[in-house]
Design goal:
The structure holds two protein chains of two kinds.
Chain A (H helix, E strand, L loop, with lengths): L6 H32 L5 H39 L9 H24 L1 H11 L19 H11 L4 H16 L11 H6 L3 H7 L17 H6 L22 H18 L3 H9 L13 H7 L2
Helix pairs in contact in A: 1-6, 2-5, 2-10, 3-4, 3-5, 3-6, 4-10, 10-11
Chain B lengths: L2 H33 L2 E2 L14 E2 L7 E10 L3 H12 L2 H6 L7 E7 L7 E9 L10 E4 L6 E7 L5 H6 L6 E10 L5 E10 L1
Antiparallel strand pairs in B: 1-2, 3-5, 3-6, 4-5, 4-8, 7-9, 8-9
Classes of the chains: A mainly alpha, B alpha+beta.
């Protein structure tokens, strides 16, 4: 645990974990496909949806890499060098602590993505699939790579090496990749009590009323239990969002959230109302427009 | 749980975990602070100054990225060849930001008793290489170094080496070359670390 890690090594682990999780996911996705085939549940629409998921992933990567190169990395290092309280050496303890803190940050970031208009406009892409399999883990929205910057910046200010913060973000994200499956039922009770599991994450993707805005956790479900946003998987989960998009067109899937938000902002009057759509919860409507048809549609999360 | 209370608990968890990490790493961090120390006194007359003042006013850790090799100190050919190998590290040179630093370092450590052999690292301060893909070869505790020559206009470090007190155990010698825009050396400094 006392061994020190340099940035070169952290960068290696970052790439290694991203690449191998992707490979393992593809293999597991193949198994899932086989399972659906045997159950005669595989359809062209489901296949097209999975392909679309990966297309959104690459679109997200493209946008994120541009952003990362120009802003994310340089921003983190700038803060680390000139504005951090201290610079903590990177050893096993530091890595564990950083992952734990990145996980609780993820909880809040994820909650914000659901409960703030602009966040939901991009994150809705991830939830808009009516299916639930490993490919959904790769279904990203256009701004999904931007918002984590602001949430993880405090870790850099506290003195964690930026490369370690990237690695921790990746670990939290990659852990969840494997939660997007219906192949795994409920795990033993102690695991379900502490860890985020496929069962908990199925609930998170549920459009059922009692599952809405629940189980935001990344690795540890304890944050949801602690902060009152936990729901147990009881009723069968209906996947997707309130107002389904009914499309596997990658452009529609990738941009529908921002399009819907833009449409609402364009149709409302007054700066306060326009800003309200950006920062208020997705179901929010300006008081004078609550009963409008647009408002009613927008209120369906 | 109400949102403010949830946020307060989150802040407390953050403080506790961060505090634990700081406590666990306290000895290492003390050492790291020493690495961020820079020499502020200039000694230009070529002699060592045991009273050289040290100040802790930089956030820049002195870690070197570049190339490292055992060299025979008596063989200028061997040392020059090592410098030549360094000049051929195109990937590294391409990654260096001259806006951050225009200095190249030659760091001799693990010198044997007879001053015959040493491990020579030639490289940049990792701070001047924004692309963090190069392995850090050495971490210097600059606090422990004394200046021998500072800001000399000559690139020749022989007078500085001659001024080193070889009657004392020498732990390391650091040569610092400030590069001009044309790639020429505009100033040279040499620091020594005694046991």
């Amino acid at each position: 645990m006392e061994t020190l890690f340099n940035e070169f090594q952290l960068n290696f682990y970052y790439d290694w974990s991203n690449n191998w999780v992707f490979v393992v996911s593809l293999v597991l996705l193949g198994l899932e496909g086989l399972r659906f085939t045997l159950k005669k549940a595989l359809s062209w629409n489901m296949f097209g949806d999975a392909v679309t998921n990966f297309i959104t992933f690459y679109a997200f990567l493209g946008i994120t890499y541009l952003f990362v190169i120009t802003f994310y990395v340089s921003g983190f290092y700038l803060v680390y060098e000139y504005f951090s309280i201290t610079q903590i050496p990177t050893n096993g303890w530091t890595i564990l602590a950083c992952i734990l803190l990145a996980d609780i940050i993820y909880y809040w970031e994820h909650r914000m993505m659901h409960r703030v208009g602009i966040g939901w406009a991009t994150h809705t892409v991830h939830h808009s699939s009516p299916y639930f399999n490993l490919s959904v883990a790769y279904r990203f929205g256009p701004l999904d790579g931007f918002l984590p910057f602001f949430f993880h910046l405090p870790l850099v200010v506290l003195g964690f090496n930026p490369m370690l913060v990237f690695l921790s973000e990746a670990i939290v994200q990659l852990y969840q990749t494997f939660l997007h499956t219906q192949m795994v039922g409920k795990l033993p009770r102690p695991i379900e009590a502490v860890m985020n599991t496929p069962s908990h994450h199925r609930v998170h993707h549920g459009a059922n009323k009692q599952y809405c805005d629940k189980n935001y956790a990344g690795i540890f479900i304890i944050w949801d239990r602690m902060f009152g946003t936990f729901a147990e998987e009881k009723e069968e989960v209906i996947y997707g969002i309130g107002k389904q998009i009914n499309s596997i067109n990658p452009f529609t899937v990738f941009l529908h959230g921002l399009y819907r938000l833009g449409k609402k902002i364009g149709a409302t009057k007054g700066l306060k109302n326009k800003l309200g759509y950006l920062v208020q919860p997705p179901e929010w409507e300006p008081k004078n427009e609550t009963n409008s048809s647009l408002g009613a549609a927008g209120a369906q999360k | 749980m109400p949102l403010p209370k949830s946020l307060l608990i989150t802040a407390l968890i953050f403080a506790a975990v961060w505090g634990l990490v700081i406590w666990k790493n306290a000895p290492l961090m003390d050492e790291q602070i020493a690495e961020k120390i820079v020499i502020t006194h200039a000694v230009t007359d070529g002699s060592t100054n045991p009273a050289a003042e040290i100040a802790t006013n930089s956030n820049t850790p002195m870690t070197l990225v570049g190339i490292k090799k055992q060299v025979n100190l008596g063989s200028m050919n061997e040392i020059n060849q090592h410098w030549q190998d360094f000049y051929e590290l195109n990937e590294l040179h391409g990654a260096v930001s001259n806006q951050i630093s225009n200095k190249i370092y030659g760091y001799y450590r693990a010198l044997d008793d007879n001053f015959n052999r040493a491990e020579l690292t030639i490289g940049y301060n990792s701070q001047s290489v924004p692309v963090r893909a190069f392995e850090v070869l050495d971490t210097l505790h600059i606090k422990q170094f004394s200046p021998v020559i500072e800001n000399s206009k000559s690139w020749d470090t022989t007078p500085a080496w001659n001024a080193i007190d070889t009657s004392r155990a020498v732990m390391g010698v650091l040569e610092e070359y400030v590069m001009g825009s044309g790639g020429n050396v505009t100033s040279t400094s040499v620091y020594v670390r005694y046991e």
